[in-house]
Automatic annotation (TrEMBL):
MF annotations from Gene Ontology: 4 iron, 4 sulfur cluster binding; carbon monoxide binding; iron ion binding
Organism the protein comes from: Methanococcoides alaskense
Protein family per UniProt: Belongs to the HypD family.
Gene3D superfamilies, per the entry: 6.10.20.100, HypD, alpha/beta domain 1
Origin organism lineage: Archaea, Methanobacteriati, Methanobacteriota, Stenosarchaea group, Methanomicrobia
Manganese listed as a keyword: no
Keyword field contains Metal-binding: yes
InterPro entries per UniProt: Hyd_form_HypD, HypD_1, HypD_2_sf
Keywords for this protein: Iron, Metal-binding
Tree of life domain: Archaea
Protein name, UniProt field: Hydrogenase expression/formation protein HypD
Length: 361
């Protein structure tokens, strides 16, 4: 039965296919699209483009460098696993761990807090990354109370401002909006983007979800509409998770934020509010933060404008101006085992997924 519905959707998409560029902004969508070869089973006219949907890919090298500098000065860095292998200008957190510095992988901020409570003589720093999906749990932990020997590098990003930027200078016709982020923010924040003429469909992560949302974007284009539609109602509603957002904005405030490969985007990040600044690693360790910024100028990063190593085209990939196979380093100098750029590290990275699922076709 399910197979039948998928086949019907594929036929429908292909029957109505006209040149169309649909961008998703979610690493898990890229994984589904690559893993199940959705680009191959629908018409070539319907292009599925990958946007900046992978949090570790857009975390600026300055934040990674800061974490490494803190580790070198004797602090304990705690981080999610996929952040550990992303290269900054001074290598990755894994490289620093190989050099003997105390860097520990954690699954949540609660793991990091436990390390702090178990080791009151140590300075514990948590590397807080992620979109609207992870920020509420970090905010909730902060509200419950953090140990005195604990601080956070706040590198959270907000998705709607990035989508807004991508409508300005990319050739995108419509968007698949991220299911996870939308469970928190709801569908309302996408309205201003759709009102500019961009169809948006919020969707989940099964093949059926993705096919349905492609067909729905296509329908909007064909009928000359642009609105926000929800193909993921089993998890997402119009208003989102009010409680999670209340907690998030109790602790964090919006701030301009630097997206690796894209640049500064107004009000697209989160910073700790003044009443929590005693836990802000940038405040607590201001001397090291300032010194890291200075070191960056003498770093190995050659493409300063895009914050990337020479030859890495993650900036083009994150903005759908290129595909991973167009990078001269893809599968040669750059692989998941030895990533040159951030898009090759995480399960959510576009280069990683293309390497894993499309390279040998
Ligand atoms: Fe960057 Fe590697 Fe992707 Fe090329 S293949 S764009 S070097 S991450």
């Amino acid at each position: 039965m399910m197979q039948n519905i998928e086949q019907k959707l594929i036929s429908r998409i292909n029957e109505h296919a006209t040149p169309l560029r649909i961008m998703h902004v979610c690493g898990t969508h890229e994984r589904t699209i690559s893993k199940y070869a959705i680009r191959d089973i629908i018409s070539e006219d319907v292009q599925l483009l990958s946007g900046p949907g992978c949090p570790v890919c857009v975390t600026p090298s300055k934040d990674i460098d800061f974490a490494i500098a803190l580790a070198r000065s004797g602090k304990v860095i705690t981080s999610f696993g996929d952040m550990m292998r992303v290269p900054g200008t001074m290598g990755s957190l894994f490289d620093a761990r190989s050099d003997g510095y105390d860097i520990r992988m954690v699954y949540s901020i609660d793991d990091a807090i436990k390390i702090a409570k178990d080791n009151p003589a140590l300075d514990i720093v948590f590397f807080g990354i992620g979109f609207e999906t992870t920020a509420p749990s970090n905010a909730a932990a902060t509200l419950r109370g953090l140990p005195e020997n604990f601080s956070i590098i706040t590198s959270h990003k907000l998705m709607p401002p990035a989508m807004e930027i991508l409508t300005q200078d990319t050739n995108v016709d419509g968007f698949l909006a991220p299911g996870h982020v939308s469970t928190i923010i709801g569908t309302d924040p996408y309205d201003p983007i759709s009102e500019k003429g961009f169809p948006i469909v919020v969707t989940g992560f099964e093949v059926l979800d993705v096919l349905l949302s492609i067909a729905m974007v296509q329908d909007q284009i064909i009928s000359g509409r642009s609105c926000v539609e929800n193909a993921y109602p089993r998890c997402v509603n119009v208003e989102g998770n009010l409680k999670a957002r209340e907690i998030m904005y109790h602790v964090f405030k919006k701030t301009d934020s630097n997206w690796r490969g894209i640049g500064m985007i107004e009000n697209s990040g989160l910073a700790l509010k003044k009443e929590f600044e005693q836990f802000d690693a940038v405040n607590v360790h201001a001397d090291i933060y300032d010194k890291t910024s200075h070191e960056k100028r003498a770093s190995e990063i050659e493409d300063h404008e895009n914050d990337l190593y020479e030859g890495c085209i993650c900036a083009e990939i994150l903005t759908a101006r290129a595909e991973p196979s167009q990078c001269p380093l893809f599968g040669r100098r750059c692989s998941p085992e030895d990533p040159v750029g951030p898009c090759m590290v995480s399960l959510e990275g576009t280069c990683y997924n293309w390497y894993k699922y499309t390279r040998n076709k």
